[in-house]
From TrEMBL:
InterPro entries the UniProt entry points to: AB_hydrolase_fold, Secre_tail
Native species: Flavobacterium silvaticum
Domain Secretion system C-terminal sorting intervals: 944-1030
Keywords recorded for this protein, A-Z: Signal
Name the record gives this protein: Secretion system C-terminal sorting domain-containing protein
Biased composition (Low complexity): 962-985
Pfam families with a match to the protein in the record: Por_Secre_tail
Keyword Nuclease: no
Top-level division of the source organism's lineage: Bacteria
Segments for region (Disordered): 962-986
Length: 1031
């Protein structure tokens, strides 16, 4: 019992996970009878796990054996699992080698080259046929002293840095990074650096200076010569972001003649430790000291891969602008860049590079406070600072400024710029987080065949050490403080996390608020869509799906690890061709979050699948299956608008081998509600908030308003995180120049919902004047507003005054009119409307569908109730029977009863009085028949055009002869012959103003005032009415 309790305690601290022994047991069974003495190299291919196709790396150059970090590690890990006999017993573990590579490179500015050279053995293709071995029940048996193996070579070398910036670099091959087979003697190292100089000889541990005259992708060829005349080759790729030794002459920040270059500034201690920033200062032309500072704070940067050069110079292809660079054109005609424009505005750039870009946000904020004080101490003149924070830098900068205010310190800052900063958190899809935590926590039982086949238990990360990079990124303090949804645990112990570090920082940050000192202006660039447009997939769609053999190290390095580098805004991908002839089969299914549902979002497992000697089939589980479900409180944020991360828009394209597996290459990294800090963190974010319109033209209203005085959102589609563009670059420049504008293309949004509205009365009396005003319009709006009224004759005067208009009704219209304001935007105009009623409100008779009708039809000896809609503000009613021998009974306000014992037709009208006086009369025709078949609601005449101007055409409807017509034959005849029909036009006071007989023909409307009229057509014993508008 004591031993059991002790084991339980140990497991609770070490997160014990079950070791899968299926593969070990299978290999022990197959190879348990072979002799290790025949494996003279110490490595037997079939005994191990081929994480990559090591046969391709045979010491000769080919189009498929490029080497990068992932491939190099996979080769070494593969060899490590192939050890048989005592020759290779002392081989260093894969994890220790991986650590050594990182440690060596981190300690020098030289670009180090690592190499491995081994020999291994594999079964001859005809080993069974030649009788070199026998197979019985999937067990291999040696035959006497016959040797069943061929010997093969593996050689791989690569530079540990694949992305270079500048023109001259120092390369070195240290002895500590060369891993050789026992007994190998290295005589010569030669490298062709792809700079046109051919192979150059390098001495061990001695730096070699290499200069490039151009940028782009370079092939690095590495040649090792060994004693015995053996020469092997390997090749790799690097990308050179070329910066000429002599900067271009045009006016722009270029990194030359710096006032300070990586000057160290250390902040006060936070929670016992201090952070340091490396500050670079480049002055504007004509300045000898800091005069007009623009302080730029970088974002999350775990490996210090983003620096001042990245900020001022585009590191992408010529037609692809890297995220986070101001080297972007903002005037296509002249080629002016944002870089040049900021310099032209006289700003001195002060770039803050974190020494530790993953530290606590508060600690780095204390450092930025020190930088601000340092700048203020050096600054000449009275110009105040501008402070811009990019991504996480926006949080650091805001915290620093506000903390200075809280502690009564003067920051001398006039403008704070937040560039796609995750004020309410950032997002890395939870399914991707689950994958790395699942695999990092798994242990594998490998067979090791020295004298006997023994078990070697090791973590999966020992053979795939770069997995630890992903977990390390997730577990950094800054990542934990920013990520909205997170997980705990590893292996099979993964669970959804309520991260205390995240919640405590969010509360502190929210409560601090925004900088306020000296009326500082706070603005934001959000890379999300103004329209609230989501990405091209739905909640709970599949992000990644694979069930195939692959080079797992390559898959991890070139796809999955890139997702975690989204936190940096500076992707690390550098791809080489994929080799799929491996022993590793993966099953992964990763899904986007559903909307507040409990659903499986991750499933993953890994197999070993291979065939030995063409007849022995091995398919054993290596990593057990793990699934994870989302929580029903989680919003579907993976596919919504925001600053996005896109695997396909990196400097290097997504490996084509995985295009069918990576179903969605984009995901939302910083939701728009977060970059705009909607509700300042005090309001619950709903699913509708993820897709709403966030337009600077009419910012969202309180309580879910944005605290920024002005903000930019991208028209229609979301952009890459911290992307500067032509549009947001011009917007930013105007702010820096002190001439703020707003940028909006909300007119392009489908079903945009804005709080813009026209305020004013809903009714204007005839010949009276009222003023209307637009509300909720951004105060920075400097476009043109054009007012109009439809129909135009409804008003006699319109006085436009920007956001307000004064109109006077003409008295020619009683009814609805539309007041419209048309606002010019950066795309098409945006219109807003208000319906107003001109004159006293006329009563309306509505059918069951809510449509106005102008006739009552019925049968004899039946009482018909007539109920008018009650107009708003009605004070008095008046009914008047104009013609007909029917009875109008029980008249009271909006109600009356119609009755007739014999067929009858005629007209009555109704009007009401409100604060504007008596309304026009509403005329209603009455048609009572004693034959049920005579009743029809079908109109047998048409009147056009409607609205009309000078002439009204009246003719029989084309379907009046339809056999289903309800008219009696004599009525049809009378209609056809037009011998007893007439058309009379009444104004809304009930006065006849025009008449023609027969009913067909043209009615001259000249001289009639604009307004609404009733056309009454009588044919035989029938009456029908039409509402006519005269313009």
């Amino acid at each position: 019992m004591k031993r059991f309790l002790l084991l339980t305690i140990i497991c609770s601290f070490s997160l014990c996970s079950s070791q899968n022994t299926d593969y070990y047991n299978r290999m022990q069974y197959i190879f348990g009878n072979i002799s290790t003495s025949k494996v003279t190299t110490g490595y037997l291919k079939e005994f191990g796990v081929r994480y990559t196709e090591i046969e391709a790396y045979n010491g000769a150059l080919s189009t498929v054996n490029w080497v990068d970090k992932a491939q190099w590690n996979s080769i070494y890990s593969s060899l490590y699992t192939m050890r048989v006999g005592n020759v290779a017993a002392g081989m260093a573990s894969a994890s220790s080698v991986y650590t050594n590579l990182n440690t060596q490179q981190a300690a020098t500015s030289d670009i180090l080259i690592a190499a491995q050279y081994y020999q291994y053995q594999q079964y001859k293709t005809n080993a069974v046929a030649n009788g070199d071995v026998t197979i019985s029940n999937d067990q291999i048996f040696d035959v006497g002293k016959r040797v069943p193996y061929d010997t093969k070579t593996v050689f791989a070398a690569f530079p540990l840095k694949s992305s270079l910036r500048g023109n001259t670099f120092s390369f070195k091959v240290p002895n500590a990074l060369i891993y050789l087979k026992p007994g190998a003697v290295l005589n010569q190292i030669q490298v062709d650096f792809g700079n046109g100089q051919g192979y150059q000889t390098l001495a061990l541990n001695t730096a070699k200076s290499v200069t490039y005259s151009s940028g782009g992708e370079k092939e690095i060829k590495i040649k090792f010569g060994f004693s015995g005349g053996v020469t092997v080759y390997s090749h790799s790729k690097v990308r050179v972001d070329y910066i000429p030794a002599t900067p271009p002459s045009m006016a722009r920040y270029n990194g030359e003649g710096l006032l300070y270059n990586n000057f160290a500034v250390t902040g006060d201690a936070w929670n016992g430790s201090s952070a340091t920033g490396l500050v670079t200062v480049e002055l504007a032309p004509g300045h000898s000291q800091i005069t007009k500072p623009l302080i730029v704070v970088e974002g999350f940067d775990p490996d210090n891969s983003y620096n001042y050069t990245d900020f001022i110079t585009n590191q992408g292809e010529e037609d692809v602008v890297s995220s986070g660079t101001i080297d972007v054109k903002i005037d296509l005609a002249t080629g002016l860049t944002l870089n040049q424009a900021i310099e032209n505005a006289g700003y001195d750039l002060v770039f803050v590079n974190f020494a530790n870009g993953t530290d606590y946000i508060q600690r780095n904020a204390y450092m930025v406070k020190a930088v601000i004080n340092w700048v203020n101490g050096l600054k000449t003149g009275n110009e105040k600072n501008v402070v811009m924070g990019m991504s996480m830098g926006g949080l650091v900068a805001r915290y620093a400024l506000r903390d200075m205010e809280i502690h009564n310190q003067i920051h001398e800052t006039k403008l704070y710029i937040s560039h796609d900063a995750p004020h309410q958190g950032a997002n890395v899809p939870l399914a991707y987080q689950a994958l790395v935590r699942h695999l990092v926590g798994e242990q594998i039982t490998y067979p090791v065949f020295f004298t006997l086949i023994n078990q070697q238990i090791q973590n999966f990360t020992d053979d795939n050490p770069s997995l630890l990079e992903g977990l390390a990124l997730l577990q950094t303090p800054a990542a934990q403080q920013m990520l909205i949804y997170q997980l705990d645990g590893t292996g099979t112990n993964i669970s959804i996390s309520n991260n205390a570090l995240r919640s405590s920082f969010a509360t502190e940050y929210k409560n601090m608020g925004y900088p306020q000192q000296d009326n500082i202006r706070n603005i934001a660039i959000a890379n999300g869509s103004e329209c609230g447009t989501s990405l091209g997939f739905a909640p709970y769609d599949t992000l990644f799906d694979m069930n195939d053999t692959t080079d797992f190290g390559y898959l991890w390095h070139n796809v999955f690890l890139e997702v975690f580098y989204s936190l940096t805004g500076n992707p690390q991908q550098f791809t080489t061709p994929l080799l799929t002839n491996t022993d590793v089969k993966v099953e992964f299914n990763l899904k986007a979050l559903p909307d507040r549902q409990t659903q499986q979002i991750y499933k993953g497992k890994i197999y070993i699948k291979k065939t030995i000697l063409w007849v022995i089939h091995v398919e054993e589980q290596l990593i057990g299956q793990k699934t994870l479900q989302s929580a029903n409180t989680m919003l579907a944020i993976d596919n919504t608008g925001g600053g996005i991360y896109d695997l396909e828009s990196l400097n290097y394209n997504l490996p084509p081998d995985y295009e069918d597996n990576v179903l969605e290459t984009q995901f939302n990294f910083v939701p728009t509600y977060s970059s705009l800090d909607i509700g300042s963190g005090n309001q619950p974010i709903l699913y509708t908030d993820l897709s709403r319109t966030y337009s600077p033209l009419s910012p969202p209203l309180s309580p879910k308003n944005s605290p920024f005085a002005n903000f930019f959102t991208n028209p229609l589609a979301s952009e890459k995180h911290i992307q500067f563009t032509l549009n947001n670059g011009n917007w930013l420049l105007k702010e820096l120049q002190g001439n703020p504008v707003l940028y909006s293309c909300v007119s392009s949004c489908e079903a945009a919902s804005l709080p813009l509205k026209i305020n004013g009365v809903s009714q204007i009396c005839n010949n009276s004047t009222q003023t209307f005003t637009i509300s909720n319009l951004n105060s920075n709006y400097n476009g043109t507003i054009t007012w109009s009224v439809n129909p135009s004759g409804a008003v006699s005067n319109i006085i436009q005054n920007g956001t307000s208009v004064t109109i006077t009704s003409s008295g020619n219209l009683n009814g609805n009119a539309t007041l419209q304001a048309s606002l010019t935007t950066d795309c098409e105009s945006k219109t807003i409307n208000k319906t107003i009623y001109i004159g006293a409100r006329r009563p309306r008779l509505l059918d069951e569908n809510g449509e106005e009708v102008f006739g009552v039809q019925g049968y004899t000896s039946i009482y018909y109730n007539v109920n008018f809609e009650v107009p708003t503000g009605a004070l008095e009613w008046e009914w008047r029977q104009i013609s007909g021998n029917y009875n109008l009974l029980n008249v009271a306000n909006n109600h009356a009863t119609i009755y007739s014992s014999q067929p009858a037709s005629g007209i009555f009208d109704v009007r009401t009085r409100d604060a504007c006086g008596w309304s026009p009369r509403t005329m209603i025709t009455v048609n009572i028949t004693n034959n049920n078949n005579l009743m029809t609601t079908q109109e047998n005449y048409v009147a056009f055009p409607n609205p009309a101007t000078n002439v009204l055409n009246i003719q029989e409807a084309s379907n009046y002869e339809n056999e289903n017509s309800n008219l009696q034959s004599e009525d049809l005849n009378s209609l056809s012959e037009n011998n007893s029909s007439s058309s009379t036009l009444y104004d809304f006071s009930g006065n006849p103003v025009k008449n023609i007989s027969p009913a067909n023909g043209q009615m001259d409307l000249q001289g009639l005032p604009a307004g609404q009229y009733i056309l009454v057509i009588i044919y035989g014993s029938n009456t029908e009415s039409h509402q006519i508008v005269i313009q």
